[in-house]
Known about the structure:
This protein is mainly beta. The chain contains two helices and 13 strands, in the order αβββββαββββββββ.
Amino acid sequence: xxxxxxxxxxxxxxxxxxxxxxDKADALDDIPKVHYWVYGADNDPEAPxxxxxxxxxxPPLPTTERAFYLHQDGRLDDTEAPAEAxxxxxxFDPADPYPTKGGHNLFLPMGPYDQRPESQExxxxxRFATPPLSEPLEAVGRIRVVLHVSSDAxxxxxxxxLLDLYPDGDGRELLIVDNIRRVKTRDGYDxxxxxxxxxxxxxxxxxxxxxxxxxxxxxxxxxxxxxxSNYPRFEVNPNTGEDFPEYDTEGELVAESGRPARNTVHLxxxxxxxxxxxxxE
Length: 281
């Protein structure tokens, strides 16, 4: 939308400098604490969202954290988790990592790229989605994904991408936010958890997807992609327990420094993996 450039950043910058540099005590009195853009469908001028809003705190609105449980058939279901213990697996090869396509990058191509060029062809990917929405769903605030996982490697990574899936006729899989979590950091980033001993050992990972303000329009679906790499946005895990792989002078992975991993996401029973969205009721 043309009005996405309406926010006067220069005026806010001057008010900030007046307050903190020039000691003008009232410089920020008329400036809201938070300005945020609410994304909406870009192919419908009547779609909700696509506007600037202001607030005095973040998150700006009361929300309910709604769990969308991962199911074996690829559903994201906000009513119930699978009753039985089930799992889905894929093979992650650090020599052939899942490629980055957009996201919150600085030097790489950034933004809400369509994920279909990669997602339609790769096998190291688990795909989940809600049914088409019967009414708009607005999510504002912090997002997280909780996965119960196992692997035949002593250490590995799991990635999560939140998507806006457009209806048939458009079909785009727009990336909203993404992040990664290393199994050895499952107990916190300030310590190293013990290596996994076997595929029978199930551990819990929480992937922080940071914050968003997004309206999923009627007919759209909420999508979630799970993999184990997002390269070069994130360095690949060699799956050996070491922090980084080795590369030769041509930039190719040194075979001895990495190994494929069979990675599993557990979906039901005592392991209800889920996407958690802050939904504006």
